[in-house]
Design brief:
The complex is a heterodimer of chains A (291) and B (328). With 291 residues, chain A is mostly helical. Helix content of chain A is 75%, strand content 3%. Chain B is mainly α and 328 residues long. Chain B has one domain: ABC transporter involved in vitamin B12 uptake, BtuC. Classes of the chains: A mainly alpha (291), B mainly alpha (328).
Chain lengths: 291, 328
């Protein structure tokens, strides 16, 4: 029973961290209707910003998260404005060229980081990293718990932003119907750039939360990208609540897969869920929740 | 379409000369150049196969590494378990790719656009992880090591690869000049309209997938025989196989017969030149970065590829506007 509880709690905690990375992606996908495969690479850049700040100023990743988010907002904004937006407007034989462009951008960014920092593993080790406390025979890791709480705070903040502010309403309107939003006076192009920046900043926050738990190297993002788009599809695109529930679900499912099946197949669990959702629940959890 | 037919008649001349050159030249060049030629032929086969499903039929697959890997493992597993010559893989590989491809197609063709692309991406990763972890049956991360039939001699491999590349181009040419070709293009252009006209789209997508999977598997089987070593991280690689196949086709021009050929040639030569010449000059491993930057620029400025946007390139050079260089 303790093993079951342990597995469940670990799954929930890591799922919350996945959710914040995925919410960035789901926002972008909601507004642009394309899958942004550069998302993971941008998260990795955010992690490196934190690593640099930790190495030079000794700033804890939870604090350096804020400058990292600001920098990544700028990078995301610029990428969207000067590169992706261009392809967004062009008619081609294969509309998937946009997805491919984001992937090429992601791989290019990875190479730039590799040139600067080499492929070595880096980490921001703080005494806090290894701490955990015990409750009912289960150990709960402190960085996971704090990370989960920060992630939930961001999700709540984002939800308030999207449902209470004018800018948030514009984002939602653009996601729901681009043309209609334009007729209502929303500058859809600028909102798209903003959303891309915001989504990227959230990915950077997710990366910073991961740092005390995990190490970083230029290719660290591959599994997180996969998880992010699994959650995006699972939750239904453009839905924060869907992404949150999808993230928690994926975290728990993976955790159970790793405990009761085999740690090697941990990632397969997510991919199988993904395929099943695509086939049997195409609208994602959004349809079920009704939001 | 009449215009295309007359163009096709005239264009027999160039491939014929190209074919003679490709048969005649390789015996007289060094081993490294022969190796590059083999790679080019392999990639032409893969790109042509991808182009049939992705370029003509519009079903952009981000997971063709599945078929490549299965093609390679079709022979590799026979060798691993029963010590059967990997050359049998030339038959079992494509067969395995097709057999696995049919259920994949039946399930995933219900999805459209980016969802289809992502589903295959997920499948590709699933195959990679399963082949890495299932040690007892599939060999696991160690992969399969076999021996090369002709030792260091590369020429036989080259001629086999050349024959298969030529066959793949021929098959795609014949398909696209039959009724099927029009069906494929109609599905790409507007699936709903195609369905409304009475085309059973899923069935015709399957007709595009089967040769596509088969030829990709065949390329995998050649790879297995030529390299004499495969492991899941290489043959099921997402960035190195699945994505590269798409980029190669996009460089040349998706939905054109010669686009994949041009794309594969440029891709292999460029990556070899970058690695052999540019990296030592700069002193850093920049070749992959340069390649990705070029890919980004290409998608941004020539989204239909070199052959697809040939008119655009010509205009950029012939129209004399001193103040305006490059761009659109």
């Amino acid at each position: 029973m303790a093993l079951f509880g342990q597995t469940f709690i670990t799954g929930i905690l890591i799922g919350g961290i996945y959710a914040i990375i995925a919410i960035g992606m789901t926002l972008i996908m909601g507004v642009m209707k394309i899958i942004n495969l550069a998302h993971g690479a941008l998260m990795m850049v955010g992690m490196y910003v934190c690593v640099v700040l930790f190495a030079s100023l000794g700033l804890h990743p939870y604090l350096s998260m804020i400058p990292a988010m600001i920098i990544l907002f700028g990078i995301g904004y610029a990428l969207q404005k000067y590169s992706i937006d261009r392809v967004f407007r062009i008619e081609t034989i294969l509309p998937e060229s946009q997805v491919l462009l984001t992937l090429a951008l992601g791989l290019g960014i990875t190479e730039i980081i590799r040139l600067i920092f080499t492929s070595d593993y880096q980490c921001t080790y703080t005494p806090f990293s290894a701490k955990c406390f015990y409750a009912g025979g289960m150990s709960i890791s402190q960085p996971y718990l704090v990370g989960f709480i920060i992630a939930m705070a961001f999700v709540a903040g984002l939800h308030i932003f999207l449902s209470r502010t004018d800018l948030g309403h514009s984002v939602m309107a653009t996601a729901q119907d681009r043309d209609a939003a334009t007729y209502m006076g929303v500058n859809a192009g600028r909102i798209t750039n903003f959303t891309f920046g915001l989504g990227t900043a959230l990915a950077a926050a997710g990366g910073a939360i991961l740092l005390p738990i995990y190490y970083v190297f230029p290719d660290v993002w591959h599994p997180y990208l996969a998880k992010a788009f699994i959650i995006t599809i699972l939750g239904g695109m453009g839905s924060t609540v869907g992404a949150l529930s999808g993230g928690l679900l994926l975290g728990v499912a993976e955790s159970f897969g790793a405990t009761y099946w085999s740690p090697g197949y941990r990632d397969v669990v997510g991919l199988i869920i993904f395929l099943l959702v695509l086939l049997f629940l195409p609208g994602g959890l959004k349809k079920v929740i009704g939001r | 379409m009449a215009e295309i037919k007359t163009m096709a008649k005239k264009s027999w001349f160039l491939p014929a000369i190209l074919g003679i050159v490709l048969v005649a030249i390789p015996p007289f060049v060094g081993g490294y150049i022969q190796h590059v030629f083999i790679l080019i032929m392999m990639w032409i086969t893969m790109a042509t196969a991808w182009n049939l499903l992705g370029g003509y039929c519009g079903q952009v697959s981000f997971g063709h590494a599945v078929f490549f890997g299965l093609g390679a493992y079709g022979g590799g597993l026979l060798y691993l378990h029963w010590d059967i010559s990997p050359w049998c893989g030339m038959i079992t590989g494509p067969l395995l790719a097709i057999i696995i491809g049919i259920p994949i197609g039946l399930i995933c063709f219900r999805l459209r656009g980016p969802y289809f692309a992502l589903a295959l991406l997920a499948l590709g990763e699933t195959f990679r992880i399963v082949f890495t972890n299932w040690v007892s049956v599939l060999g696991g991360a160690c992969g399969v090591v076999s021996s090369r039939t002709w030792g260091a001699e590369k020429l036989p491999y080259y001629y086999i690869a050349l024959a298969i590349a030529a066959l793949s181009i021929y098959v795609v040419y014949r398909l696209m000049h039959s009724k099927l070709g029009y069906y494929f293009v109609s599905i790409r252009e507007d699936q709903d309209a195609a369905e409304a006209l009475g085309i059973p789209t899923t069935r015709y997508k399957m007709y595009a997938l089967i040769p596509s999977a088969g030829f990709t598997g065949l390329a995998g089987a050649i790879y297995m025989n030529y390299m004499a070593y495969i492991d899941p991280e290489v043959v099921f690689n997402l960035a190195g196989v699945s994505i590269m196949m798409i980029l190669v086709v996009m460089i040349g021009g998706a939905g054109t017969l010669w686009g994949p050929v041009l794309g594969a040639t440029i891709f292999i030569i460029l990556s070899e030149v970058l690695r052999a010449v540019v990296d030592p000059i700069v002193g850093l491993p920049v070749s992959y970065l340069i390649f990705m930057v070029l890919a980004c620029l290409l998608i941004m400025f020539l989204p239909d590829g070199i052959i697809g946007d040939w008119g655009k390139i010509k205009r950029a050079f012939t129209r004399k506007k001193p103040a305006y260089l490059g761009g659109e």
